[in-house]
Amino acid sequence: MLGFKSFLSRTRRIKKKSRNKRKLISQFAFGEQNCISHKNELPDREEVIEDTEEGFGLKSSAPSHTYGVQPLGNLYFNPGSINSRDTGLGNLHTLSDELVLEILGLLDATNLGVLATVSKSFYVFTNQEPIWRNLVLENLCDGFRYNGSWKSTYIGAYYPSFDISNITVQHLKVRDFYSDYLFQSWLCANLEMKPEWLVRDNIVRKKGISVEEFVKNFEEPNKPVLLEGCLDNWDALKNWDRDYLVQLCGDIKFSVGPVEMRLEDYFGYSDQVREERPLYLFDPKFAEKVPNLGSQYEVPAYFQEDLFGVLGEERPDYRWIIIGPAGSGSSFHVDPNSTSAWNAVIKGSKKWVLFPPDVIPPGVHPSPDGAEVASPVSIIEWFMNFYGETKSWKKKPIECICKAGEVVFVPNGWWHLVINLEESIAITQNYASRRNLLNVLDFLKRPNASILVSGTRDRVNLYEKFKNAVEDSFPGIIDELTQKEEKKIQQKKLSFWDSVTDSKVGAFKFSF
Questions:
Q1: pLDDT tens across 294-311, in order?
Q2: Starting from the edge strand earliest in sequence, which strands make up the sheet with 23-30, in order?
Q3: b/e map of 383-411 (b: 16 or more CB within 10 Å)?
Q4: Are 366 and 345 in contact (CB under 8 A)?
Q5: Residue 239 CB neighbours (<10 A)
Q6: H/E element, 37
Q7: Most buried pick, 152, 356, 431, 490, via CB within 10 A?
Q8: Which part of the chain has CATH 2.60.120.650?
Q9: Contact 141, 259 (CB under 8 A)
């Protein structure tokens, strides 16, 4: 076999009205950049995958496959083989794997267990981790203790007397089961980040600059920058490790996707999990829950003007503590309410990829009104299938690796993706200064603001509340900024991408 290798590129559509219900949209993508190279054939999960220039390497901790699922391409190199996936599904074999899983996701645990005995194919489908993950997250909203797999976690919670070792150790291996969709999910969960995905580091880095210089050179022209040395006086930078946070927070629960978890339980989960999209601890009320957390950091001088503060307790969510294992992160998005943001790494390191507002990242498809975004299911999948395209782009993305003690400034409207390269702890805040106040007001008064606005219960009236509060606190500021903006529009300036080329921006500063 000399070249034909295919994997499934899956996309998702995220509806802001319902974070927990996500519609997955799948499509096939063929290309050499999506290949795994090994002995001139597509590998199954037990084979050693060599890390070549065209291929990908597995993590050293990657488990051997459980059910024997192989990529569909392998079927064409086994003459006479019949896909047991199809024979086991019967008349349902015409349905896509995604649709089969979506239908099975409507069943409860008991019916899934019964259906698993119908055929080997149903056994494989009904034991897929995403199905059991959804059952756990929908039914155990007050938290859970992860027990090695989502299925064993669910059974352990509802049937504590059951010996879960029976389901975590013994698995039926199915021969000749071919599925790109199921294989890719496993693959994305176990791939290492390729070195070439980490090499480009072209963000501007600054240390010790004045607030005036930051405003003039970055905030006003809406350019990203990585700031060094401005967290040195944070107690969080010295104190926040696992043991300290677990002891400090005790039984306080934090937001982890749709559930609430104690830090100790979340760290137990993150130590064991090997999945495509690890759960991310992302809590907007951490400082209210544990005031000592909020007192151990301070907003860097560059970001202290935050006009949303005039709303007091009615302001939208604006600050979060973020904790996640390697591989966790945020897929491409634009920050809420047209705000700008800063993200400070306290422990670990993060890979950032940013595109300006007028450049939609490859593989990302926002709806015309901005209410929905279709993108690859996981961050790793985006790197596998789309990152290579940016090499030939004139307007290359801004990239960097942000390490502990460093801060990334994310200008309003910029698309960005973030993936943790190791277990990481960070603080991020969104804010509205006078430099992007008009953008925020325009966003809040859009016709579909009730769908687009986030982080507040009163989406409909936020525009009027915010505008009136700003005018009361800073009389005439909106008119002044409007006049200034009109003058800017009349002046033609070179864009950032025309004035700066990738080769002039900076050099790679991080190594492994």
A1: 999 999 999 999 999 999
A2: 23-30, 6-15, 372-376, 365-366
A3: bbbbbbebeeeebbbbbbbbbbbbbbbbb
A4: no
A5: 14
A6: none
A7: 431
A8: 196-359+397-458
A9: yes
For residues 87 and 121, the answer to whether their CB atoms sit within 8 Å is yes
- Cα-based angle 309, 312, 318 (whole degrees, multiple of 5): 55
Q: What type of residue is 182?
A: L
Q: Is 11 exposed, middle or buried (0-12, 13-18, 19+ CB in 10 A)?
A: buried
Q: Which residue, 30, 25, 26, 24, is CA-closest to 7?
A: 30
Quick one: pLDDT band at residue 449, thresholds 50, 70, 90? confident
C-beta separation of 219 from 212 below 8 A = no
Mark residue 412 as left, alpha or beta (left: phi above 0; alpha: psi -120 to 50; beta: remaining).
beta
Between helices 150-158 and 129-139, what is the axis angle to 10°? 40
3-state SS, residue 352? strand
The pair phi, psi for residue 433, each rounded to 5°, is -95, 180
pTM over 0.70: yes
Q: Which two tokens stand for residue 436?
A: 């992007």
Q: How many CB atoms lie within 10 A of CB 60?
A: 6
Beta-strand ranges (E) seen in 397-476 are: 398-403, 406-410, 415-420, 424-431
Provide the pLDDT for residue 459.
Answer: 85
Q: Which helix (H) or strand (E) holds 116?
A: none
DSSP 187-238: HHHHBPPPGGGT----S-EEES--HHHHIIIIITTT--EEEESTTTT-HHHH
**Token pair 């008064």 in the structure block, residue:** 445
CA gap 398, 396 in Å, rounded: 7
Q: Which residues, in sequence order, are CB contacts of 45 under 8 Å at separation 6+?
A: 64, 65, 68, 69, 70, 183, 186
Q: What does the angle CA 338 – CA 344 – CA 345 come to, to the nearest 5 degrees? A: 135
* Residue 456, C-beta contacts closer than 8 angstroms, at least 6 positions apart: 314, 315, 316, 317, 462
Rounded to an integer, what distance in angstroms lies between the CA atom of residue 128 and that of residue 151? 9
CB 286 within 8 A of CB 294: yes
**8 Å CB contact between 112 and 158:** no
Query: Strand order of the sheet with strand 340-347?
Result: 205-207, 225-228, 406-410, 340-347, 424-431, 319-324, 281-283, 253-256, 259-262
pLDDT digits (tens, 9 = 90+) for 334-381: 999 999 999 999 999 999 999 999 999 999 999 888 788 888 889 999
